[in-house]
Every structure is written in structure tokens, then in C-alpha cells.
Amino acid sequence: MIALTAFLASCAPKETTLTLIETTDTHGRYDEFANDVHVIKQMKAELGDRLILLDNGDDMQGTPFQYCSNQDAEHPNLVSEVLNFFPYDVACVGNHDIEAGRKVFDRVYAETTVPVLAANVIDETTGEPYFTPYIVLEREGYKIAVLGLLTPYVVTWVPDRLRPGLRFDNLEEAAAKWVKIIQEKEHPDLMIGLFHSGYEPQAQNLPEDHPLGRENAVKWVAENVPGFDLIFFGHDHRAKAEKLTNPNGEPVYVLNSGCRGQGLAKAEVTLKKSQKPQISVELMPTEGDEKDEAFLAMLQPYIDRAEAYQNKEVAELPVSISSDDIFKGPCLWVDEIHRCQLETVEAEGVNADISMAAPLGGGKTLEAGMLKVKDFFTWYPFENSLAVMALTGKEVKDFLEYAYEMKNPIYNFDCAAGIRYEVTDKNPMGERITILSMADGTPFDMEKTYNVVMNSYRSMGGGNHLINGIGWAQEEIKDHVVWQSDRDLRSLFIDWATKKGVLDTEPLNCWKIK
Question: Which fold has domain 313-513?
């Protein structure tokens, strides 16, 4: 018996320490990511297979050269090139990767040599996960399970046409289901979550009892679903390294590296058979001048192709504009978007009485002069499309009341064109907005139904203007959609500006703050 025990002990894997590194939400900022690459390659050279590299999605949107790569079927996509560069050990899907459209993300992930995870994205034809739900990595005799999950709120931001045939299930329920499956089937020594979901609900999230669950669910899962040792997350762009406790009183470590190549999230895990993993976590800033030359060389052709595209001249901007002017009242930054939206749908033969729009980033400026394509990525950074919705006059007012209440963050601060109204800033929500008339002076009717043009993010419930502001249920929003564009709004904006030649010098002055 003693001999058998000694034999079994000699067969058990030796104690080992692994290093796990996460990147997330790069949003195509791979020129800035070269600092991270330099650090990762140094660690790879030192640690070899004891380094596990994870990416947590939202890579396919955010820069002109990534946008160009998504449209370019002649060359490998930049995202697949980056994932294959080290290569990564595993990646998770982000909501902005889905936003690129199924034609794009299917091609990108087919080009990768890296397992791509998202257990709660379901193929409606088969009822099975569309992506790989989880993988098991083996290192020095130990099994490391990685479960990928994506916030299901994709369905509130990305139109059906970009994600046909896919269903996005509740993340919390999927976490509980799959961690149990993995434990029973795989018996891992280390259980990792790779979640493209934020830490905890923010004020603008939907109610926690919504069928989709929480948009940002990581803290809830860590504290309520036993089985995880470590959860890497992203989506909310908030760097974090924290220790939580699950229902069994066991530690769960949660990590988010932040966004746009600003740093790495690092976990060191010591594994020893028949003992709980010993884990330490930290955030690693990667600022500095040292960049990986091989990575930059790989990146350069993509930058060159994008430069040719983004430096094309579009239209003259006679006066400088700033997104922050919206806080003072009407401003050209938003009113040119209004003009574009109203005139674009009119050209499509669709009537729109009112336009809703917000600046999509604070602290942005465009100087007077000839605008190039790249300036429109500053002006309109997302790949939203355009939609027309049917709202009653009262719903228009409720929409604007909510937008003024939620003016921080700035991308929720919608204002309207096509009507004239006043905002009494000192009044409480619900009593701030007074709609005086339509823009042409004709009466505005609270009972009448108006066609209202807005971006697709807002028309699907993004920002909760339709849900918390008006009071619609998520499932009824689609019943109010009158029309949707087939192209992204930035492309429509560029086309509109090109035809115009010279942009306006004065805002529409449809509203004022009293």
C-alpha cells in the first residue's frame, strides 16, 4: 500500500505557476497596442507555455484602418492577423464584433487559429452554441477550463440584419449552466470565465429582472454562481483587479485590462494537486516608447491602405465645431447630423417629421477647413445605421425629458430637430421640456403620431430612451420601426456631405435652455 501511494504521488503533476494575461476592447487601436505587444513578447520568451494569453473582444470596430480591413475581402482581416500574431490561446466575442456583421465576423474568425468562445450565442437553426462554448487548456499536467460569454444586450444595439439566425441568451443563466457542465465533464484544476460583460449595472442599464438579465453581470456571477476561480471581463472599459467571494465563501478574482491598448490584466496562478489554486492579480500599465517592430511591420500595410481611404477630401467645414457645445444649446456638431438624417431619409422616399441625435463623444473638435474621411470617424465613430420610428407627440416629449436627464454620458444627450422647444434646466425630470411647435411653426400635437429618424442604436433601445424614457417594453420596440437603412450612418453622412460640398455655418436653433 505504501509503495502504491508513493507511485501515485510520483505520477501527480508538480506544483506549477502560470501567468495569464488579458487584453480587451482594443477597438482597432492596434497602433497604440504595440506597447502591449512588446511586453507580451518578453513574457512569452521568458515563460513559454506557462503564459496563457486571452483576448476579450470588441476588436473589429473603432478606427479607420480597422473599418477598411472589415470592408476588404482581398487581405486577411487585421483582427485575425493580431490574434494569430503570438498567437493568443483563446478569444471571446464582443458586441462590437457582432456589430461588424455576420459576413465580416464569420470571415475573421475563420481566418484565426485561435479558439473563439461565446457559449450563449445560439444558432437558431440547431439550437446549439454558434461559437465554441468553452475550451480546456492543458499545462504541465493541469487542466484549465475557459468559458466564454457575451452580454446578450447585443440585441438592443445591433439590428437583426447584421446577426441573422443568432439568439443571445441570458448571461447569468448561461454561466450557471455551463460551469456545472464543465465541472462534471472536465474536472478542471482551474475554472476561468472570459466574459465580454461589464462589472456591475450602471444607471442606464435595464432593470435586473429583464429577460436579458444584466448587461454588466460579472460581479453578480462571481458572487452568485459557484465554481469560478477567476473571471476576466471587459465591455465597460473600466480597468479593475479585485477579489470577491462566491456563495460558498471561496475567493473569485475578477480582472479587466481596460481598453484600447492602455494596459494588461495579469493573474499569477499556482496550481498544486488536491489544493485550491493560489491566485494573485494586478493591472499592468504598458506606457512607454518600446514598441514591437515585427508587429508594426505587420500593421503597416493595413495603415497604408487606410491612409489612402481616410485622406480623401469630402467637404468644406466653414467654421470650427465642438461636440461639447451641445451643453450650451443648439450646435453645428449635432445639427449637421440632423440635417443629414432628415435629408437622407427624404431622398429614400421616407417622410421624417423629427430627428433625434446626440454627440457620440465628449471633448471632440473639428477645425474649419477641408474635411477628410478620417474626420467623419471623429464626428461619427460608430457603425450605426439609420432608422425611422413612429412616436406620438407625448412620446417625443418623454424621450427628450429622459435625454436631458441622462445628458452625462454625452452620447445619451439627444436633442431634436423638426420641432421647436425649450428646456427649463431648473425643473425636475418630466417638467423640463416645453414643445412650442413644429419647426415650420405649425402646431405640435401630443396625440399625433410622428415619424422620428434616429440612429439604429437608439432605435433598438440603446441608452434606454425608449424603455426608461417612454416606457416601452424591449420586445415592443420593433413594432414602432417604420424604416431602416441598409448602410451604416457614417457612410451615409460622408455621401451627404460630399454632395453638399460646403457644410453649414449656423445651427438649426430648434431649442434653447432657459
Answer: 5'-nucleotidase;  domain 2 (3.90.780)
